[in-house]
What does this fold into?
Amino acid sequence: MVIISDDLKPILRLGVIRLEGLRTVETGTASAEAPPSQTVSPAGVSEDRVTAVRSMYRRLGIDPTKTRPSSEALLRRVHRGESLPRINTLVDVCNRCSLETQLPYGLYDLRCIEGTIHLRVGQSGDEYEGIRKRVVHLAGRPALFDQRGPFGNPTADSARTMVTTDTTGVCVVVFAPRVVPRPDVEAVLDLTASRVLATAGGRELGRWVVGDER
It folds into this structure.
């Protein structure tokens, strides 16, 4: 179950998919990947979507030029002539979906999540160890919390819930600005689920668009 705090509902909604029975395979390093022309063309990315995500960050009190949405960070990488990082099959698929849709994604190992997921603004002292070992401070910023504490936000995810080659079940979270129509969010979930299942096998446990509740 996923719950968004009332103060965040006017700003964003979440697309959520849970999948299990997946096979996660290491795919190598960035230096070994194909040129960007063989991944995705940035010309196909909607600038309106980039602007919408930046506006969402500003409404959340975050400067998107200093703390970039994960989706825009991928886009800037490709614009610099670099290819997408290759980590493992699940991370790679979600990175490509995030780049193409220009929506920030979170990808979490289901085994490492306990209880109900809440999206709320972090308080003083809320933080977690990021995947690259740096501490991610969450005071005044939206973040996902479970019974053990925070574990993800639209910019950087935690080491605690990171996806590895031992991962067989995941929770995919798409952070969508409120101005993005619900049918568009549903289409993003369709795209993501189909690509994950085609790449890693498994089955879908369920999906939700969260944030329209009153």
